[in-house]
Specification:
This protein is an alpha/beta fold and about 220 residues long. The chain is built from ten helices and eight strands. The longest helix is centred in the middle third of the chain and has 20 residues.
Length: about 220
């Protein structure tokens, strides 16, 4: 007898869940900062790898505010655009890591009756560049990003999906690795699956229905 809960929608986080950008994030920031200094002759400190890691999963506005609190709005914007340019180059060069089992697992879900959504605090260009590079975009029903409606957080994204498709939260599963994923699921009253292999392995996650050590474990729990 199959006692598995049936979901109609699964919303996936990106960083630390499907993909790891840490191999190039530090260099992206470092190169962008160096370019900003050369172009505008300003004094700015490069964040450490740990400081950048701690910000993964936050909306870009919060990241920039936390890492560069003394930078003016003008230079914050310029730096943000430079960082994104560097990141996109690294993505297109294959410098990031798609976690083992992601492609095959997503493909199997897409061939089922479950609709796949993307719920990331990353910018639209960043999200779609990664999905396009790995041939994953076609498997997702929709991709709503922070950029689309100037959302403030991941909860806003989930609420938008729920409204757009008239989703019963009981039939929605949020899959992510950090506390902001947990909070988003909690805010819309849907189930949460914690990917403890991601960037939030040391976080105190309590609101969860499942936890997985490897991405493809989700198949045995859901399908």
């Amino acid at each position: 007898m199959n006692n598995k809960k049936t979901y109609e929608y699964i919303a996936f986080d990106l960083d630390g869940t499907l993909y790891d950008a840490m191999p190039f994030l530090y260099n992206s920031y470092k190169e962008a900062i160096e370019e900003l200094i050369v172009n505008y002759n300003i004094d700015i400190k490069n964040p450490t790898k740990d400081e950048i890691l701690n910000e993964i999963g936050n909306p870009v506005g919060i990241i920039m505010e936390n890492l560069f609190p003394n930078l003016s709005n003008e230079y914050t914007y310029k730096l943000g655009e430079l960082i994104m340019d560097k990141i996109l180059i690294y993505i297109e060069n294959g410098s990031g890591i798609l976690y083992d089992g992601v492609y095959d697992t997503i493909k199997k879900f897409a061939s089922s009756n479950i609709n796949l959504l993307l719920a990331s605090n990353g910018r639209d260009l960043y999200i779609k560049s990664i999905l396009n590079y790995y041939g994953l975009r076609k498997y997702f029903k929709n991709i709503i990003s922070i950029d689309d409606k100037n959302f403030f957080n991941k909860s806003d994204i989930l609420k938008s999906y729920i409204s757009l498709y008239n989703i019963n939260p009981e039939t929605l599963l949020m899959v992510g690795d950090k506390s902001n994923d947990e909070l988003a699921a909690q805010n819309v009253n849907c189930d949460f699956m914690w990917c403890i292999f991601g960037h939030g392995k040391n976080e105190n996650i309590k609101y969860l229905k499942y936890k997985i050590n490897h991405f493809n474990e989700i198949l045995d729990l859901i399908l």
